[in-house]
Amino acid sequence: MLETFINGLIPLSLIEYAIYTLVVTHITIVAITLYLHRGVCHSAIEIHPILSHFFRFWLWLTTSMRTADWVAIHRKHHAKVETEDDPHSPTFYGINKVILQGADLYHKEKNNKETIEKYSQNCPTDWVEEKIYTGRNNLGILLLFIINIALFGTVGIIIWAIQMMWTPIFAAGGINGAGHYWGYRNYNTNDDSTNMSPIGIIIGGEELHNNHHAYPTAAKFSLRPWEFDIGWMYIKIFGIFGLCKVKRVAPKPVIQEKENTDAKTITQSLLQSKLAVITDFTQRVLKPAYQEERFKLSFKLLADHPQRLNESQENKLNALLKNDSTLNTIYKLKNKLHEILHSRQTKHEKFIETLNSWSSEAKSHGITALDDFLIRLRSYKVI
What we know:
Layout: H1 2-7, H2 14-41, E1 45-47, H3 49-62, H4 67-79, H5 90-93, H6 95-100, H7 102-110, H8 113-119, H9 127-134, H10 139-152, H11 154-176, E2 199-200, H12 209-214, E3 228-229, H13 230-240, E4 244-246, E5 253-255, H14 263-272, H15 274-293, H16 299-303, H17 311-321, H18 325-342, H19 348-363, H20 368-377, E6 380-382
Parallel strand pairs: 2-3
Antiparallel strand pairs: 1-4, 5-6
Helix pairs in contact: 2-3, 2-4, 2-11, 3-10, 4-8, 10-11, 14-19, 15-18, 15-20, 18-19
């Protein structure tokens, strides 16, 4: 009896214990990214009830997280990103606090009834959710503790502890902290989101966080040929068996050989591709000028929208730009283009009129990189 308690019903080798732990923690990550994030929160995919119920049960068993809590907190993060109202922004809380105490920030916001009520629309409200997953939310992790000991004996306690730490460390701390602090950016979004790695495996593709902030309702997070989103791979596999259906993906802007001439086509193409257009301008026009002029401040300050700069940064930037007419011109044109593309003006004629005015101003400066970009500007096509 004592031996059974120590070794459990299924004694394994050290490697087998490690493999099992990696598998079960990975399933938890898959449940978070597919069910909570891409499914319920952003409605990017539609998950079959059988798979959906499995994910809900698994998350109750391994994390005790309630769907409405997680979804509401994440939606508020998008709505209030990088402000003091963002539940877990490194900009406000500091990177160390978000990484090391990400779970504490989650639980703090979970107790904010206003947040949950405002941002938890379309979350499950059935009997199981209300009576089991909500009413007895901690029962799941207690059952998991007992199951682990029964199966693996004392080693099961270690496996259970790893399962309990996995989500706070990798999901809460990693995505919310590192995903807004370290990495590269494909898109100049109005936040600090980054892609931590072009290969998204460890946290289910969530490593591609900048891509997600660029297109929050897209089911696929990998948007460059060299990027890999394992979550998207699972979506395609589940789709084969009718367990998952893709509802939305990011628009794919391409540059065609001829320019668009129809006002409606130009408007739709540019508004759907606005992040790609701004990023294109930043990389093809602003960055070469920055490198040539050897500007003394970080390129990130120029690339960001001015509304994201604090007063000190704005003053330093404006003081230096006064002595650099070329870079100052390009910087101001970038900001004006950003305003045009992010305005709520959807009437094609008015949009084209505003765009033509901006193009004429850009053309008048005789800057080669600007002239080349103007040709590309009317050649965007979304596929």
